[in-house]
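F.,

This is the one I mentioned.
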């Protein structure tokens, strides 16, 4: 209703009798009844300290992904990363939130042209164009160098898992599903990360709530040290991978 009226939600809550239901409201309700995500209907989603433009072709940001920023804050306590890499950036969710947190420069990588178009638009809206660069690629295959902070929210749903209609029917499957066990993309990332983490840096990776042990094993097999962080609901949600001391 607030979106249809073009006002803030709290304005309706404070004085609901001031407003008349607009003609645009009913079509929005019909879209929601077909299980279209609210973020696609309104075209925006708040995440961390920023608002992001969002739509079909880009994964809707989830609040639990903020766990990655909290884990990164803990790792960089008292200092700031100078460079940030976001692998699978989508609409720029993690990268732009990190750049709003620290005065860093960032690189976002995604295979989806649609997602990258949202990411570039969001960077421009947030005044971060000069601090961001986006490239189309499959994980880190198109980049080189080292980064202080690496963020990644890869697909981690097993292909035979049942999802709510608003997710399965509307969000991009390439950003959701990762093989029979949901670990296909972690296997790729685990092999790439050691060469990308700068001295003193960290890779912070989102996981499904049951994937802590298998993904930790993949990372440790590459010589990385791993720490687990839990989300707002107390579920395992992020792994912080660092290079072992020489």
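My design for it:
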């Amino acid at each position: 209703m607030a979106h249809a009226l073009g006002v803030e939600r709290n304005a309706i809550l404070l004085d609901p009798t001031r407003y008349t239901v607009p003609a645009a409201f009913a079509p929005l309700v019909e879209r929601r009844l077909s299980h279209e995500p609210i973020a696609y209907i309104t075209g925006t989603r708040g995440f961390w300290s920023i608002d992001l433009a969002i739509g079909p072709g880009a994964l809707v940001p989830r609040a639990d992904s903020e766990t990655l920023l909290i884990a990164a804050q803990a790792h960089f306590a008292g200092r700031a990363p100078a460079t940030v890499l976001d692998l699978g950036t989508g609409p720029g969710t993690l990268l732009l939130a990190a750049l709003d947190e620290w005065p860093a420069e960032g690189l976002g990588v995604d295979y989806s042209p649609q997602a990258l178009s949202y990411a570039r638009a969001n960077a421009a809206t947030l005044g971060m164009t000069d601090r961001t660069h986006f490239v189309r690629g499959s994980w880190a295959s198109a980049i080189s160098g080292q980064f202080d902070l690496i963020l990644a929210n890869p697909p981690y749903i097993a292909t035979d898992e049942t999802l709510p209609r608003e997710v399965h029917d509307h969000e991009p499957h390439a950003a959701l599903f990762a093989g029979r066990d949901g670990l296909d993309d972690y296997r790729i990332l685990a092999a790439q990360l050691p060469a990308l983490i700068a001295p003193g840096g960290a890779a912070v990776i989102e996981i499904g709530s049951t994937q802590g042990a298998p993904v930790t094993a993949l990372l440790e097999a590459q010589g990385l040290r791993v720490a687990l962080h839990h989300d707002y609901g107390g579920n395992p949600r992020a792994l912080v991978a660092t290079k072992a001391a020489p």
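The CA atoms of residues 146 and 187 lie 20 Å apart.

Talk soon.
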